[in-house]
Design goal:
286 residues, mainly alpha, Endonuclease III, domain 1, Arc Repressor Mutant, subunit A, three-stranded antiparallel sheet, 61% helix, 3% strand, globular
Length: 286
Amino acid sequence: MNPERLSRQYHQTGTLTPKVTDAFRQTIYDRYHANPRPMPWRETHDPYPILVSEVMLQQTQVERVKAKYAQFLTFFPTLADLAAAPLEVVLRVWQGLGYNRRAIALKRCAEDIVTRYNGLFPETIAELESLPGIGPYTARAVSAFAFGVAEPFIETNIRTVVIHFFFHGRENIHDRMIMPLVAETLDHGNPREWYYALMDYGVMLKQLHPNPSRRSSHHIRQSPFKGSNRELRSRMLRAILDQPGITTRELTDLLSADEAVVVKNLGALAREGFADQRGEGFVVRD
């Protein structure tokens, strides 16, 4: 398909003909069927490991997630196992993925499903969105991949594909312009495979072209991790896991950091649900 011509036709008419929609889907599917990306979470319809994968994949590269996904499910093979596990153990297993708040959210989800739904994974998008840390994208992705629910959603690779084909040469593209196209081209007969195909096509586009998502009004250049407070908090959490009861002074010396900065970030770890002060030292929250 010619993206320039397709984009021009779409913006002249404001809609897609059935013929164009079918051709677009065929283009995406042809690439996917010829070269699908193998991922372990694509081999299951069980919503629990699918949820684990979706949370892990937030801001983390696929290859890093693959190894941790297998390890995590070895430690916590079921929702009940994760819900019952001490937070300290969950955080230890999570180490290496970064964005540790995701581990807390995932454990809280498991606890919520066990207590509110008697361990039965909720299937509706409204129920999924009511779980801790689960937003519109994750709820719809889990719903599509586990239950075959055909609802439009946007993530970075889907955004890349839509911008490439339908917004040729345009800048500052808002998601409200993209969502109608996601909805119109959605394969309602097989949303699970369609979204996998769409995401894989987006990855391929980023390898062949300057990232089209940079033309999105939602594109944000990620700030460097090295030297950031986020990096310091990650190191502090690892130290608290390794040395329960470690004091502010000991953390400051261990990390060669400014004491005022350590104190500030200890407060952040407490607010985010990671750590509590016990006497003069700090431990992972129970």
